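Narrative progress, year one. The postdoctoral researcher (J.K.) led the effort to move from monomer predictions toward full complexes, under supervision of the PI. The following entry was the first complex the group processed end to end, covering 1097 residues in total.
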Amino acid sequence: MSSPISAAARAADVWKVYGSGEAQVIALRGVSLEIERGKFTAIMGPSGSGKSTLMHCLAGLDSVTRGQVIIGDTVVTGLGDSGLTKLRREKVGFIFQQFNLLPTLTAEENILLPLAIAGRKPDQEWYQTVIQTVGLSDRLKHRPTELSGGQQQRVACARALAARPEVIFADEPTGNLDSRSGADILNFLRRSVTEYGQTIVMVTHDANAASYADRVVFLADGQIVDELTDPSADAVLDRIKRLDLSVQAAAE
Amino acid sequence: MIKASLRGLLHRKLRLTLAIVAIVLSVGFLSAITVLNDTLNKRFSGLFQTLNENVAVQVQAKEVSTGETPRLTAAQLQQLSNVDGVNGTSGDVSDEAVVPFKKDGNEVTAQGFVGVGASGDDPLGLISLREGTWPKTASEVALSANTAKLAGVKRGEIIKVFVSQVGEPKPYTVSGIVEFSGGRDSLAGESLVIFELGHAQEMFYGQKDVFAGASFSADSGVSQEELKKRITAALPSGFEAKTGDEVTEEQSNQLAGQFDFIKIILNTFAYVAAFVGIFLIYNTFNIVVAQRSRELALLRAMGASWGQVTGAVILEALIVGVVGSTLGLAAGIGAGMWGESALTGALGAEIKSAGVVVSPAAIITAYVIGILVTLIAAFVPAIKASLVPPLAAMREIARPDKSLKGLSITGAALAVPGVGIALLGLYASFTGSIFVMGFGLVLALIGLMLLSPLLARPVVRVVGMAVAWGQAGKLGVRNSLRNPRRTAVTAIALMIGVTLIGAAATVVSSFKHSLQADIGKYDVAIMIVGPNYAPPNGKTGFEASALDKVEALPGVTGAEPWWLTIESSIAGQPIPVVATDVAAAQKMWKLETVGGALRTLSAGEFVSDHNTAKSLNWKVGDSVKVRVGTTERDYKLVGIYKATPSVSGPVFGLPAVDDFEGKLAYQGFVTVAPGTDVAATVAATEKIMAGYPGVTVGDMSTFLKQFNQIFDFLLLAVTILLGMALLIAVLGILNTLLLSIVERTREMGLVRAIGLSRGGVVRMIGVESILISVFGALLGLAAGVGIGVLLCQALIEGDFLTEIVLPWGNLAAYVGAAMFFGIVAAIIPAWRAAKLDVLEAIAYE
């Protein structure tokens, strides 16, 4: 069991309820989870299992109905807008399925944008490391529209890494990419965990993507139902099959 | 297809709201002007109907004659009253500059100053005695109830009355108070003094038993036309007869003519506002089409023809135009009603309200303008919509920025020759050169508009350095540059209003400085100016003999009267006739002789400035037809002088004054020896002029200040009248920002997710808004100052101006105002962007 100090983020008995009465949907049912510092954690589950909701709550993008979320030493639950803004500047980074780069900025400007917004000077040495790792040195002056999807997502990864946040949340980062570009991105994420000790949480429904993680947490019907450590793709697939069956069994 | 587009319209009603608002504002402005104008016309024609209520026929002197104005003798009047069918006869003995004084020695303030002669109750029943008696002697007067109230006098008390033909005001005893039919105190807030008939005839016409004309009522059963025929048969020469209806119509039309002038000016500003609206609506449709390209492509993929797609957009525009016009018309009628009741408050309820008039023309104009503006604006976006390829439904088609090359080349191809043509029009002198200049300026303006997307980049960059701080500011700068066309179109809407203001400010500033510089060249220290309650025609002002008293004051070296009438024409043109001692004027105003001689003029002689002489093709020795009042004579040009900002135009000698309506001088100029106490001299002059109603005296700096105030007021009036256009332009910025934010929802979410605060989002949008507004203001000021300088140069060519002075203070203030409006326009969009939910925004498709 990891101590509170070594946890980069924690969810304690988190509930998320949308709507009320007949239309009420319970997305998370008392999820408790610790994200270990310096590890690559994948969250998996079928559609509607609440995996994206869990990530959004962990990242402070969405509020929780009950329970508590902590990132580093900051209690996220109950933070106001300025507190959340501070949290985003200092503690978290994001990688989205849709890349979400600003079309008016060059690749380099996009990478440095979070730092510029926070008014922080980039650490030159680290910045060089990041762009070399993602292999973008010759594309820095290009606009997003002049880059391929894979290249755009690499820029997005570099942007998340540049500020060295406590945790990077990646939401289906390979969902919009072909398998080769996807593999590039996953390798890059893996390396930043292994070599630079970055903590990453990734939501995915792709077993192969999950196999790059140190630990896979399985979600079904708003609850953590299982987890795997140092998984292989086959092991993940196997677990998913069993889960699907058990979910069906539960439904019947 | 129609159903689909209607449903789409409802779905996007928020996005089209501001387009409708723009139509409502400009159509509302236009409708309000028309409705108010029609309403007032109806109301005033009601006034004339009352005035001529029982008049079946009116006899007046014919418009133009040579020699003396003809008068009706008492015998002739008697003869006319004996014409078969005449019921009542009222001889006309009246004057329009008879001013009563209050007890404190100041003249009363009223809407016109009427004096008449009467011997008893009005045979036509317009005026009747309320209390006391009619004036029986030359020292008695009767007053209308309104006059007694204004002057604060009662029956039996003394009132001083100024009659232009008499000069110094004289005291009268109030013998009675009269009222108008219906028990009214006045017809339209005017003052009315009634003299004993013979006394009035002596004062007004110089002899007893003569009348200017007469009004007749008819026996029952005799029509106006019939009576007119009979009276015409009995008329002495020099007179004509009109029916009461004809007189009413003439009087109404004359007043309507004066309203028309104001209406044309106001309409011009309303059309400017509508023109500005085109840009707002164009942007709206353009952005909406861009945002809908996927939906349009889907329709195309399902087999909709390009005509159907274009038609759908045009149909939307048509609906926007109809809805906007309807609401605008309603707003205009509302404003017309409000204006009518406000005017009732200002004029007093004396003139009966005739109700609000909404003419068919007002309704047609509202719809034609509203729909036309929308269709013009939606035309290009509609074509663009039809060019969306069906393929765009399947995937995101990259829309690369279209090159600005073609646009910019066209712009330059218009702007450069435009400036050239304008300069040609300025310096070449041929008939219509002013139109050539105007044509050139229009070309140059269109060119500048087409060039504006190209100019947006450098200008916004530079301005951005000044107003954008922090990363949020930088993002704002980038956003305003990402679509230069959109930024430019939004800015052009503001540019149009600012151009007009900038040009006006430049001309006004140059006028003020030129006048100041020119006045400084002369020794003239004090100026005397006649009243403005009636158009100058010799009946308002002061007697020349009063200036002799001024000339006798210590330190005064000269005092010269100038006469002025605007009831005149020279060579068929409506040019005022001014008269003075030209020799004295030459000395006082240091006039430079260009041709002939500047000397004291005899009868039938005049001089002119060189510009007027040139434009009317006069040479020394030429004979020119000059009409003053009803008298036309030939005058010979004996001298030409060089025009200055202070003195220009034709100048006549003292003999010409004989043809004026009255003998009163309208202006006086006084020179003093160095070291003279000017303030004391002004005070002494004021005392001498105290008996002449409305005459003001001041030293030159006071008058300069007054002139400056007039100029400033004109500038302010232009600015206020452009208010609607500026408001629409600011709404345009708001509109563009709102639509852009919808387009960039995901980006907003992203920058928030990576740590931009709410304040940062607000700043980002604020900077974009300020950049658009300042860019528009700078474009407008560049164009406006350019036009202003050209106009000033034209005025310098005409010697109305001597120098061009740019109004730097004003220009800076306009840029400041643009920034302020930029901030105001950003409030709602920034608020909407700041309250976006980060998660929803990122997920936004």
